[in-house]
Amino acid sequence: MKRGHEPIRECICCGQKFPKTSLVRIVKNKEGISFDQNGKSEGRGAYLCKSPECLKKLTRQKRLNRAFRQTVDDSVYGAIAQTLQLTETNSESTKPVKA
Ligand SMILES: [Zn+2]
Predict the structure, then answer these.
(1) What domains sit in the chain, N to C, each tagged with a CATH number?
(2) Which of 11, 61, 76, 94 is 20 to 30 Å from 55 by CA-CA measure?
């Protein structure tokens, strides 16, 4: 394995290219569409960058419908949005808190 050659993927909302590791993966397989926590689930993947703008776009413009060429249920968007918001909050709250 060579270093410095990360796979590049395109965000389905802004179309910008990012190293795969800095994107979140949404996967479609026989169980349906879900947020792929470890990036290793089987199935067709769509990638999304972590910008709040893109998260908004994803749900408002129903970008997954296009990415997966099917109608994606609102509850799926809801679950993904919720997961991503939680993830973001968690990573930002790493500052030490003084009592
Ligand atoms: Zn994006």
Answers:
(1) 8-91 (3.30.1230.10)
(2) 94
